[in-house]
Amino acid sequence: MVDARSGARTGVLHTAHGCVETPVFMPVGTQASVKAMSPADLEVLDVSILLGNTYHLNLRPGMEVIEACGGLHAFMGWSRPILTDSGGFQVFSLAGLRKILDDGVEFSSHIDGSRIFLGPVEAMRIQRILGSDIAMVFDECPPHGCTRDYACQSMEKSIAWAANCSEQLRAPGQLVFGIVQGGAFDDLRRHCARELVGIGFDGYAVGGVSVGEPEDVLLRGMEQGVAELPPDRPRYLMGVGRMSQILKAVALGVDMFDCVMPTRYARNGSAFTRRGVYPVKAGAYRLDTRPVEEGCGCYTCTHFSRAYVRHLLNVGEILGLQLLTQHNLFRYMAFMAEIRAAVRGGFFREYRREFGSLHAAGGGA
Amino acid sequence: MVDARSGARTGVLHTAHGCVETPVFMPVGTQASVKAMSPADLEVLDVSILLGNTYHLNLRPGMEVIEACGGLHAFMGWSRPILTDSGGFQVFSLAGLRKILDDGVEFSSHIDGSRIFLGPVEAMRIQRILGSDIAMVFDECPPHGCTRDYACQSMEKSIAWAANCSEQLRAPGQLVFGIVQGGAFDDLRRHCARELVGIGFDGYAVGGVSVGEPEDVLLRGMEQGVAELPPDRPRYLMGVGRMSQILKAVALGVDMFDCVMPTRYARNGSAFTRRGVYPVKAGAYRLDTRPVEEGCGCYTCTHFSRAYVRHLLNVGEILGLQLLTQHNLFRYMAFMAEIRAAVRGGFFREYRREFGSLHAAGGGA
Predict the structure, then answer these.
(1) Is A286 close to B65, i.e. CB distance below 8 A?
(2) Measured between CA atoms, how close is B287 to chain A, in angstroms?
(3) Phi and psi (nearest 5°) for B75?
(4) pLDDT 10s digits, A129-141
C-alpha cells in the first residue's frame, strides 16, 4: 500500500524463513547475538528479521563451526529471517592495512592480525554457508569526503563485484540484494542504481551512507538512489537508525532499516522514548519510581522503575543492560508498527507531525 | 519429613511472601539482582527464595531509594521471599580499615571510602526498610585460623549483638535468624548455639564457615552448631554451595543454602552438570553440537549448542553469560528438587551414592 501524499509504502517481504512486514527495522546481531537479548526475548518483542555480519562471523566462530551447526539460524537458535551484510562495510571501516585488488580486498583481521582475502566470490560463499535469507553483494564503501574520481572508480568496482555476486551459487531460497554506491554525487548514485537494476537483484540497498556525512547529504544520496529503483522490489537503507531519519526515508519509499542505536544506546544507559532519548543513569532519576517510559508496555516498563534500572546500570549489573535493551528494542518495534499502521490508514503525514512535535517537546524522560 | 538413615529432612518454611520448600538453595542477588537474570527468568527456574546483601544495598542504591520504591521486593520486582544477610560477613571480609566497638563496627565504604557505622541496631533498621522476609542478626565473623581467645571474645560479642538484634523493631511478618559462630572450636560452637536458642530466634544459621578453612573443619563446625539447634526451626548453612558439601550438610539436617558458585562460575565460562563442572569455553567444544548438558531441560540446553555458548563466551557476548547462568541455576534448582524427592521417598542414601559415582566418573562434559 502506498501513501497518497508521500512515497511511504507498506508491503510484505517473502523469504525462506517466513514473511516480513515492511517498513521494518532489523536489530543487529553482529556476532550471532543481538547484544543482551535471547532469541526468546526477540520473539516476544515481535522482531521479524535480524541482521548478521559476514565479516565478524567469518572471523569468529568461523565457517567451519557454523557449517557444523547447520547454518546461522540453527547456530543461534533463530527461526525467523536473517539478512547478512557482505562484509564490505566492515572491511573498509574496521580493517587496518588493506590492499584493494580487482577481485577483492586483502586485509588484516582485527582479532589476530592474520591476512584475510574477501571478495565477491568469498562473501557469497560465506553467506551461502550462513544460509541467510537475504545476502548482500560485496561492495566497496568509499569514505565520506572522497573525490569524485575516487567515488566513480570505487562505484565501477562495486558494480563489477555486484555482477560477479549475482552469478554465485546461493543457499536454497536465498535472496540477493544489490547495493547502490556513488558517494555524495547525484549522477553516480543514479548511474549505479540503473546499472544494478540492469543486472537484476531481488532487492536494492542504498549503501555508503551514515559514514559521517551531514544528514542532508545522507538523505540526498538516498533519494538519488531510490529514484532509480523499481517499485516492486524492497529498498533497504543500510545502517540508518535515527527515528527522524527513518521517517524521512520511509516517506521516500524505503522499506528496510538496520542500526545498532537501540542496543548500543541501551548499553550506554540511554533510553528511547516517544519524547526522544534520555540518560536513565542520570542522578535526576535516583528516586524516580516511574517506569523508564510512562505508558510503555514492555517487560521493563511494566515491571521496574527508573530508580531500579538506574541503580543496575550504576553498579554495573548485567540486568540493567538487558532491561534497557529490551525497552529500546520494544520502542523501535512499536515505532515501526505505528509507521505501518499510519501508512495503511492514510495518516502517515499526521503521524510524522505528531512524532515531530513530541520529540521537539523533548527531554526524553 | 526426616530421612530414617540420616538427619536429612524436608519441610516448608512459611514467610510473609509465601512458602519455601526445604532443603532449598538461595541464589545470591547481592545488588538487588541475581547477576544476568531477570525476575521472570528466576520464576521460570522455580527459584523460591533469593538472598540480598545489606552491606551492598545500604551503600548503593542506599536506603532512601529502596524506601521510596517501597522496599526491596518492589524495588527489584520480586514477589517471592527474600532473605537478607546482616552485612556482618561483608564488613569483616570486604571492608578495609575498621574499628570494632561495643555497639558495632566503623569501616570504610569499598565504593568511596566514606566512614560508615554498622551494628545490630543499624543492620536491623536497614533490613526493616528492605522488608526482607528473613533478616539475619549482625555478627562478627572471625577469620579462619584465629586463636581460641579471639574466637571466644568474638563469639561473646556476636551473642550480645544477637540479643540486641532480637529486640529491634521488625518489618511486618519478618523472621529473624541467629547466627552460630565460634570458629573452629567445638565447645564454642556448641555454647554459642545454646545461647542463641536461649534468646530464641525464628531460625538458626551456621556462620563463619566457608572462609578458607579445609572442608573437614567446615563440616565439623557445622555439625557442632547444628547439634544444639531445635529440630522445629530452620537451619541455614551460610555461603556453602559446593554440591558435595550441600549433600553432607543436608544429611546432618541443614535446610537452607546460598552461594555465588552457580552464577559466578557461569560468568567464568564453567558449566555445572550431573558429571561435575567443565569449562564450556575450552577449545574442545568448538564444533560440539550437543547441548551444554545432555538431557538437561533448561532453556539453554533445549535451544542451543555448546559450540554456540562457547562462541558467545569467547567473543564476550552478554548472552553467553545469561545462557550459562540460566543453565547453572537450573542445575542447582533441579539438584535441590532431587534431594527433596529423595528424602521424601526414603532413598536419600541411594541418591547420594549415585551422585558421588556420577561425579567421580567426572569430567563434567
Answers:
(1) yes
(2) 5
(3) -55, -45
(4) 999 999 999 999 8
